[in-house]
Fold:
Amino acid sequence: MRKYAAEKLAARKASRELVVEIFRLTEKMPQKAKVTLGVELRKAATSLSSYVTEGSSRNEQEEQTDLLLLAYESLVEISNKLIIAKRLSVVHPKSFEILQLRIKDLAVKINKVAKPDEA
Structure:
C-alpha cells in the first residue's frame, strides 16, 4: 500500500522540530555536558531527521523501510541519552518529559510511514 504524503510530511516535520528542540536544550547544558552529551544528542537528532527525510522520499519499500529503521534507532539513542542527561541533572525534568512525549509521537509517525498496513 502506498503511503500518504501527509503521513510522510508529518514524520519529516516532527523530526525537524525535534532537532530544533534538541539544539535548544543542549545550548542550556553546562559546558562539560554540552561538549560531550550535547554533541552526541545533536548528532543523533540530525541523523534521525536525515534518515526520515531520505527514507520517506524513497520509492522502493525495502529502501524506505531500511532508512526508517535507522531513523527509529536514532530516536532510541536520543531517548537513552536524554535519560542519562536527566540522571546527571543536566536536563530539567519537565523538559525531559516533554521531549519523551515528542519522541513517542515521532515513533508512531515513523511507523506509519514504514509500515502503513499495520498502522
Observations:
- The mean pLDDT is 90.
- The longest helix spans residues 31-57.
- The domain at 5-114 is CATH 1.20.1440.60 (de novo design (two linked rop proteins)).
